[in-house]
Amino acid sequence: MTEKLHRVALVAAHALVMLIAATPGAQSREYHVMGKVVDKDRQPVGGAEIKIRDQGTGRTYAAKTKGSGEFELVGLPHGVLEATIQKKGYAAKTDEWNFETPQEKMRKVELPEIVLLTDSQQKEIELSQELQRGVQRANEKIRVSDFDGALELLEDLLVKKPEDTDVLYLSGICYLKKQEVDAAIAALEEVTAAKPDFAAAHLQLGMSHQQSNDRAKALESYRKVLELEPQNLAALYNMGVLLYAENKPEDALPYLERAIEIKKDDSEIHETTAYCHLQLGNQAKALECLERAQDYAQDMAKIEALETLIEQLKEQMKQ
């Protein structure tokens, strides 16, 4: 080989080395990625396909999990990688792996466990999210007293999941507000049967029975509320009102007195307490309660009515 040809060969060889160094393959062996795919119960998912796409170059890589759920990808390049994990019967999952830092030596990276949900589990989650959104919209309508609009939403949700207690509970409230008592009771009884510790549902059920004049069942519901929430003001007051209506002032007073301890400035509680004392012949205590009821009353007509009662009682006490 002549000296001139030798120089040409050297230049050509040098250019080849530079070309190889510039190709994507020369930068592709920077990361050794290890991971494990499991199901919702943290059991390994074997045979799951791992497909990787380099968002910068478009190059793709693939692996499959072993029976242990583990997988390895040796020689991934630096960059932002989109990983898709899938297996028949499971909902596909897409993650983003950020390996943007170039590495001079192979770097091992152990990923957190990747959880795959079955198709049915994924559908259940999506349904739950849909129900939550529907319940939120129904609550907004209830806040502005649009009970028909709320029920329209809730009835659609019940078609998809008839046993959902949150939806049934809001339905019961709407029916009660519309004075459709039988429908309210039916919905709320389903709720309390499924969730016996749901105090608010027992309270609404008690109010429904009270509205239908079934005092025994109303009292039963309020007692259940007080077992769960001894300081529930509405249950305490309603117990007092019902027992007073049944001519049981001695039984009513303890509930009303507990209610007053919780809310001392409630005019109605003081007034009902006064009536219990009147039934028992405790005129002085009744007068004291009526005066407090008047002090806390906001409505002028109520204030005037209480003033009349107070004056009449004072006259009786003089006799």
Note down, in words, how this protein is organized:
- This protein has 319 residues and is an alpha/beta fold.
- The chain is 58% helix and 15% strand.
- It contains twelve helices and eight strands.
- It has helices spanning 3-22, 119-143, 147-160, 165-177, 181-194, 199-211, 215-228, 233-245, 249-262, 267-279, 283-296, 300-318, and strands at 31-38, 49-54, 60-64, 70-76, 79-86, 93-99, 107-110, 114-115.
- The strands form two sheets. Strands 1, 4, 7 and 8 form a four-stranded mixed sheet that branches. It has a four-stranded antiparallel sheet with strand order 3-2-5-6, with no helix packed on it.
- β2 and β3 form a beta hairpin.
- The termini are far apart.
- Residues 1-27 have low confidence and may be disordered.
